[in-house]
Amino acid sequence: FSAGDDLKEAEAGDMPPGNPGFRLTNLIDDCWKPSIAVIEGICTTGALQNAMACHLRVLGESAQISVWHLKRLGAGIGGWGASSRLSRLVGLPKAREIILTGMVVDGHEAVRIGLANRVAPPGQLFEEAMSMARAIAEMSPSGVKTTQAHLSRTLDLSKEESLGFAKQVREMMPRGMRFEDVASGALEAKERDRSA
Do 132 and 117 touch, CB atoms closer than 8 A? Predict the structure, then answer.
């Protein structure tokens, strides 16, 4: 179970100054190193905001995802970006339904609506997350970083701006180098490290 902040403290207005949860959530969101949230059981309010800031989410079948801000605090916005992140992940109509009704979403529904990437049965949750992590680790680190930077910026851009940004990123690479070359060089280096 995780709800992020202590909701009783929030209701009493006795929260730490400077909104450290908001800063933490944005740091997770802005990090170019991929992050994977692993969720089993109840995940709501601040915990969900942290999970939504991660780049990938793996949920157990028994996960219970909800947004209790409106139900418990009287406003469904969320101090760490709940409504903004949720609407970007699942679309505005579904975000409205989740926030305004207080509905609880299980692991399978979370994947169906785009809130999670994968769902795993009991006992296989962490292995599923590690499988994703290993797949990412096999990629070129500089390529992952470049891709993360591009993906994180394109959401706020028009299609034309996004395509222009992608062109600029490619032009900034050393002349004659292709993404494929970067990946191939990284794999060769990894093979040398394994055999050494």
Answer: yes
